[in-house]
Amino acid sequence: MHLSRYFLPVLRETPKEAEIISHQLMLRAGMIKQSAAGIYSWLPLGLKVLTKIGNIVREEQNRAGAVEILMPTIQSADLWRESKRYDDYGKEMLRITDRHERDILFGPTAEEVVTAIFRDTVRSYKDLPKNLYNIQWKFRDEVRPRFGVMRGREFLMKDAYSFDLTAEASQKTYNQMFVSYLRTFARMGLKSVPMQAATGPIGGKLSHEFIILAETGESQVFCHRDLIETPVPPADTDYDGNLEPIFEKWTSLYAATEEMHDEARFMKEVPDAKRVSARGIEVGHIFHFGTKYSEPMGAKVQGPDGQLVTAQMGSYGIGVSRLVGAIIEASHDAAGCIWPVPVAPFEAAVINLKAGDAATDEACGALYAKLRNAGIDVLYDDTDDRAGAKFATMDLVGVPYQLIVGPKGVKSGDVELKDRKTGQKETLPIETGLARAIDLISAQRVLA
RNA sequence: CGGAGCGUAGCGCAGCCUGGUAGCGCACUUGCUUCGGGAGCAAGGGGUCGGAGGUUCGAAUCCUCUCGCUCCGACCA
Asked: What is the pLDDT of residues A286-311, one digit of tens each?
């Protein structure tokens, strides 16, 4: 992409409404534009990151056996009356009336819709298990939206819903999602820690919040330091095999959010040096809720003995749009965003220090073409801005690898390769620099 | 929903107290000089001062109402 043809409205000054760093940087880097309280338009750069995050989530969901669907944003109130949630949900649900005076709503979640799909289509235990997910916009009319996309009213969420014949089978599905989540966040360069969460009226142990540690996190969290360093399960993990050992390994050490924290237990179970007390951002939440929706909505299948069995359900959420902010919170510096390669809006940039100079244009154009042909997602800064402004923009935007070429480099046949994360620059022969950049990027495309 | 604050050019702000018809920095346009870390000079463009009503000869400024946004609390992917 040529920067001169792109749409990248960067801001030099920080809009005053932005309180936290991720919100500030997203506005400054031209990733989003606020439309109303807690509602944002995604500009090209932000959309690219959002899409890349969504695709990683998608890949890991598919790997774990979930199947993608797409459910509507607008739902019927009647469905919510079946589960008895229409009256219970409260003002967070955006209720709308259509031209026929029928009650509809903008979905804050999709248990009802998916349960209806399941109940109307699945008849036999032989069709189980099923795990259906979608990545769709949700709307929750938060009393107080804040922190940019971290707590918007409209947000993009991956929500999966599983259906199993028995509670034991449901536990297996739960484990699949548990492992999948560890991998998903790791692939975005995040260290997530699963923490036992409150389960509400259902009870049991099967609810975990996935928290990433960041100074600006919304809640206080406590955990054993070893959890942060535990390597995530590899890509070739057999999701159909026994995942219980992995689940055990990750849940045996102490980890709790403020609401679930037990100071006495924390002191007793975690040695001094291993105690971590930090701020965290919730990026995922999984839970098993048995027949909470399948029972009232009549989601039943015939078991092996011919009897009807109410499906055991679980749901598994990831805040996709929130993750954009969360990654920035976890990875930035004074100059701007520092994107891990797998989610970077562009993997590399070619910076032409003297656009308009025939020799420089030619050298940069060739470099750009070669990077593109190598499958690199590259931004070519062909504007006639001054060098300082170009560097500042690329650092703000957070392009991981920047190939800098000016008349000097053209003369000597060199390119400067800058690593955004370390800030280090190397002067290399053009072909060497090109190969180095491609190698570095390729090596980091798939983390974990 | 309780408490606080803010709406003046794309962004950041001054002007308001003490009414006289709008200004600064950045950004933008044009020209010249520059050009390897956010350039300099010069000339420009852009605002019904969030909206409505009122007071007044005259309102960004004073009064009333209203809308929007932000922050603190209770709530959440």
From this structure: 999 899 999 999 999 999 999 999 99
Tens digits of residue pLDDT in A409-425: 999 999 999 999 999 99
Å: A43 CA to B45 C1': 27
Cβ proximity of A54 and A156 under 8 Å? yes
A315, A287 in Cβ contact below 8 A? yes
Q: What ipTM is given for this predicted complex?
A: 0.93
- Flag residues 106-145 of A with CB < 7 Å from strand B: 140, 142-145
- Tell me how far the alpha carbon of residue A436 is from its chain's centroid: 29
Name the nucleotide nearest A146; use CA and C1': B70
Amino acid at position A192, single letter: S
For the segment 156-215 of chain A, residues whose CB is within 7 A of strand B: 157, 209
Q: Is A200 left (phi over 0), alpha (psi -120 to 50) or beta?
A: left
pTM of the predicted model, to two decimals? 0.96
Averaged over A101-130, what is the pLDDT?
95
Dihedral angle, C-alpha A323, A198, A206, A328, nearest 10 °? 10
| Nucleotides on chain B within 7 angstroms of protein Cβ | 1-2, 11-13, 25-27, 35-39, 68-77
Collapsed DSSP state (helix, strand, coil) of residue A381: strand
